[in-house]
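Aggregate trends can hide what the representation actually does to any particular protein. This step matters because it turns folding into a mapping between discrete strings. For completeness, the protein is quoted in full, as a sequence line and a line of structure tokens:
=====
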Amino acid sequence: MPVGAAARTAWSVPAALGVIAGILLALGVTLGFGGNGALSLAGLAALLGALAWRDPRRALLLGLAVAGVGAGFLSARTVLARPDPMTPWLGAQVTLRGEWDGQFLTLQEPRARVAVAPKPTQGAGQLTVSGRLVAPEGRRTPGGFDQAAWLRAQGGLLLPTPGAVLVAARVQAHTPGRGLRGWFRRGLSAGLDDRRAALMQAIELGDRGDISREEFAEGYAVRDAFSRAGLAHLMALSGQNVALITGVLLWLLIRAGAPPAWRYGLPAALLLPYLLLLVQPSPSITRAVIMGGVALVALAVGRGRPDPLGLIALAALLCLLLFPLWLLDLGFVLSFLAVLALTGSARLAGRLPARWPYALRLAVAATVLAELGTLPVIAGTFGQVPLVGLPANLVAGVIMAALVPLGFLAGLLGPLAAPLNLINGPLASALLLVAQTFGQAPVLTWGVIGPAGFVAFVTAAGAGWLWLLGRVPGRAVMGTVLAGTLLTALPGWVRPAQDIVFLDVGQGDCTLLRLPGLTVLIDAGGSVGSDYDVGGRTVVPALRALGVRKLDVVIATHADTDHIEGVSGVLRGMPVGEVWIGQRKTDDPVLTAVLNEAQVRGVPVREVRRGDHVQAGRAALTVLWPPGNAWSTEDNDNSVAVRLDVGDWHAAFLGDLPAHAEAALNLGRLNLLKVAHHGSRYSTGEALLAQARPADAVISVGRNTYGHPHPDVLGRLAAANTRAWRTDQSGTITWPLP
């Protein structure tokens, strides 16, 4: 072998790096990501230089990289510049008819795809639905869902990008799908109850609409259990599905004595119909189909074992040329990080105890590497890391090895699959039991990971890879990990956060106070007339993203849904020291749910009155209302109002108090006022503003039909020279404390 042969780099690697650089360049120019784009481009250039340094074909590799930059830039700009045909109807009430696939409504004229909210419960098929078209929203809370970015990543050169959302959607008519996909769905559910049928559709088709509505118990959703157990990837079509299904087909062809061309060529030929006719081209499954197809074709034509890194790069190259904005898709990023990490499975298995069966060593190695490879993205995005991922995935992996191919066969059989589902049913039940059991284990909470955290992770990962190669001892890896942990954790220990965070929970209230030694949440929002769990789905992820691991106090100001409904979800999702309430109503279902949840969690409930306070260093939180000697028949009149004093800096949070109660508070001078009742005309009166003279006021408000904030309130604030800040305009507002 020539001396330079070992240093050769697959041509697809520089080409893929170039495409990524081109897409980043297009995003930086178009979306204003200049700083991050420049940093990423510099990192890619350094990586390319390292790969090509010892390769005798430097000029060729650099040429491929340059060509990739041009191709990636052109592809991304083409997708970004394409107008959305639904734009002229934004803000209008419309009725749309199209093909519903469980995720998007695809229209024929104009050719477009539309997201629907709330998502219809009907299965795939022809759907007629009415509602109002609106533009998608970006991320409005820390750790929240960036709907606009996600929708941008769902389109490509050959697939329209969803650019509008149909809200307040009402289904007018639905015709179930009659094609292959409809037949397949009937096979997955034949003879099974709703929960197991929903699980089968999630595993085999990636359709998580039905399973998202399933609960093991009140407040304990099936999807949450899978996530907490580290099994969420099982419900996203990926390489595991392709590997298991093609693996069974390969085994059958080998047993039948098929020659290599048929043995590998037939599964490769079936992958494209599988992608286009049965499942949707999501980033993970498309990557898996492309990668699996390339590997099978290479084996069919007798080219030997493909280079893993070159194969991964080729899959990325093809995916990103067709779907350039998949580079922003979380699932796509996680897929490639996991696959890159899995390339070290054999090396790690070789370092595990030799007395273990090799299959077990390989399974343990693959699971550990996949979890470590995706750790920073999982932790930073979801705010938590499962602690039982390894055993849960080992047990679930055995079940999936049988369930995926048998479920696929059941789908092919359609309504005739009931006898086969006598086997699939218990397997699905076993998988649900694994998720339910391991999902009750504690998780490690995490905040947003900054640049320093990613640098520390990459350094530790590099040290781990050198250990796998036998270049450094294990103690060097442990030292690198400990050093990175200390250096990234030290700033938070030395200077903990001191601020007020007004979370954007739509038409509701939710305020976080972060003080040294005291963390307080005032209300947690709510969704009137909806079953959306604002506390569990919006507030808890935001708290985790902010690095909040426990709450000392949760204040439920009064028995209004838009203020305290989310408190139950917060109690379920995070340790809480105590709950403060004002009036203990016994006939209000929302407050009763909060009190019951507190009792179940063992959280004490304290009925506070004017003068109650808590001290934390130089900060004091004092209850201003209610006096507690009499109660009004109006819940707003009974709101808990508190004042925060940090040295000579003062703020007040007034719940939904009306003007006549505000005037009785004797607030004194304020630096910051949290406006009562979302800017209702009956609050924030002239007397209050004349007394408090706040420099700034925050209004927590969302889309509403109440006229909040009322022009009279905005006028009174302007007349008092008070600057108004609104969550419906600014999203989550963070206010630093002195």
